[in-house]
Specification:
3 domains, about 0% strand, 3 strands, Multidrug-efflux Transporter Regulator, Chain: A, Domain 2
Length: about 350
């Protein structure tokens, strides 16, 4: 039995225009024509149409549907994988929007209604953060509202120091280093990788700079302040003369450490074993960086370890704690044992 285009449209729930379009692009061409030139579809055409509809329910474009109809199961597997990935991204975006609306609803339920300007500032920062952080990372940051309030106060204090021309090694500047580093890391959920993202955001986004007051100049100032803070702690144990001799090397390599901390966190989350090739390569680079700053004397290295044990605030803002410290210690120990 042959069906005219109108009859096929009625049975399948499609429009005649859709079937004409399928014919025009070669997706479903009728097997026959009547003497008057009308399209006629046979059983095979109907089966093909139902397959087209089944694939269209996967939200596939017609171009991919045509390829799949002429391909095999392996093609379908690839397309399904792509669709699943796309849906997961949509779910993440929907979850982020839900969290954002919940945050705004919480503000509305508060006793004090936020001003319009506060609303717009919050929304703008959310939009900027979306470009740098995953929904999960953003949710972790939202838990640190107290840290954010304290950080805002420190940002204002640092800006005041900069405007007054206070040097980074001045006592009133150095005293702000530890709380800045500690609160920043707490706000980032203790993840050093997120610290790098936050740094990139404030260096690259004029909108974030305008809203938070943290710009490249301030980041450079705080970097110098934090370096001076740590050098001051080391000087209490090693002496001013020793620190003066290695000061240039310490400052030259200072910015490399956050990258190492972030890489260590990545290795931990990937489940790298202390004796794995990737962990041993990392430990080799860690030791090379340490020696570039402190030299190769084992006694000095032992002394630095002792200082870190006595002064845990030295590692404020690094994220090196708990399981991460354990993994690093085990990896370095394995490397040392196999070098001897």
């Amino acid at each position: 039995m042959l069906l005219k285009v109108g009859e096929l449209a009625k049975r399948t729930g499609l429009t005649v225009r859709t079937l004409h379009h399928y014919d025009a692009i070669g997706l479903l061409r009728p097997s026959a024509r009547s003497e008057a030139g009308y399209r006629l579809y046979d059983r095979g055409d109907v089966e093909r149409l139902y397959r087209i509809q089944a694939l269209r329910r996967l939200d596939l474009p017609l171009s991919e549907v045509a390829v799949l109809l002429e391909g095999d199961a392996r093609d379908l597997q690839s397309v399904i994988d792509e669709q699943v990935t796309a849906l997961e991204r949509q779910i993440e975006r929907a979850a982020a929007l839900r969290n954002r609306l919940n945050d705004l609803r919480t503000l509305l339920r508060g006793q004090e209604q936020p001003a319009l300007n506060e609303w717009l500032t919050t929304l703008e920062m959310m939009a900027i953060y979306d470009r740098y952080f995953t929904p999960e990372e953003y949710a972790r940051m939202q838990k640190g509202s107290r840290e954010m309030r304290e950080l805002n106060a420190i940002v204002a204090a640092v800006r005041d120091l900069m405007e007054r021309g206070v040097a980074p090694d001045a006592p009133e500047a150095v005293v702000l280093a530890e709380p800045w580093l500690r609160l920043s890391l707490e706000h980032m959920g203790g993840d050093p990788r997120m610290m790098l993202k936050l740094d990139a955001l404030h260096r690259n986004e004029p909108g974030a700079q305008a809203l938070t007051g943290v710009d490249t100049a301030m980041l450079e100032y705080v970097t110098q302040v934090s370096a001076e803070y740590r050098l001051g702690v080391y000087a209490r144990y090693l002496g001013a003369d020793k620190i003066a001799g290695m000061r240039a090397a310490y400052l030259a390599h200072y910015r490399r450490w956050p990258v190492m901390f972030a890489e260590a966190q990545e290795l931990l989350e990937r489940g790298a074993a202390p004796d794995s090739p990737e962990m041993q390569d990392f430990c080799s680079r860690w030791i090379a960086l340490f020696q570039a700053v402190w030299g190769k004397d084992p006694a000095v290295r032992a002394r630095i370890r002792d200082i870190h044990a006595r002064e845990p605030d030295l590692m404020a803002g690094s994220g090196l704690q708990g399981e991460l410290m354990t993994l690093l210690g085990q990896g370095l120990a394995y490397l040392e044992n196999n070098q001897n």
